[in-house]
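Example record

The entry below shows one chain as it appears in the dataset: sequence first, then structure tokens.
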Amino acid sequence: MGESTISIFGKELLSLCECHAAKNDFFFNWERIGRIDKTEYFFKRRVLDHYLVGRAVESGAVMREGVQATGVTILKNMAVVHTTAGDFETGIVIGADGFGSTIGRSVGLVHRDLKCRYASMKAEINITPQKGCQLGIMEPPRQQTHFFSDLMGFAWVIPNKDSVNVGYGSTVDRSQGLRERFNRFLGHLDLQPHLVKGGQIPFMTIRQPCTERVLLTGDAAGFVNPWSGAGIDQGVIASEKAAIVCREACDSHDFSAEKMSMYQKLTEAQVRRNNWRGSWIKALDNIFPHGASFPSWFKLFIMWFSNLA
């Protein structure tokens, strides 16, 4: 999480911070090739999410655990959210339900090109301070981002207080054997797999994240940095803009597609920047044959890329 997001939530959020780093080292085939000087704050997601839900409830939100949305129907004077606990009537719906959003699909706001996504594996692994130093992620704390000549994607090692967040991701059509490749990556770091989870991350943002009575934010709309896979900052930025539109719509009792299009205008620059970055990933994915190693000049491309990230 970046400093701008911390400023939105408030400094009290730092009490939950596991670790903060001012550097991100870039590697290509295990050789260090560059570094970004950028301050990032790292949190355990289950802790951060619990805190944010608590703040929302304190502000008046009603939390319904174990209830799953199954779709949305847009009527003339309301939206009806269908769930496993029955139907709920509302004026406006915000879909923040991840990639492949049920809310988005039910109203036709979907990623048309399903190739524009990463398949990823990640694990949170407890380590000792000595192991952190051995990995090169401590003193001072720093993130590592790894690229490989046979991987259309990247891997990461992120320091926490007493653990590391380790991940490995590839474009979805090149993700065969991803778990085995991730295990080999962990083995090279002398880390044992623990609580490994899989998921998908979009690397293109949908061009229309809204329609009548419905807005999408976060992974549901593809608000993710394509060059890092990080989505918290992008999601918070988009959600702030969604909140502005929701307030204006509720105040004016206008939930039309035209009113919701204000959200599209507010996020236009963000979408354009994300999709420019994502187009590089898509182009490289199309250019290089499957199974082929990247040519020697690809290392120079990664070095250039790291300066833009």
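Notes for this example: The chain has a mean pLDDT of 90. The longest helix spans residues 232-252.
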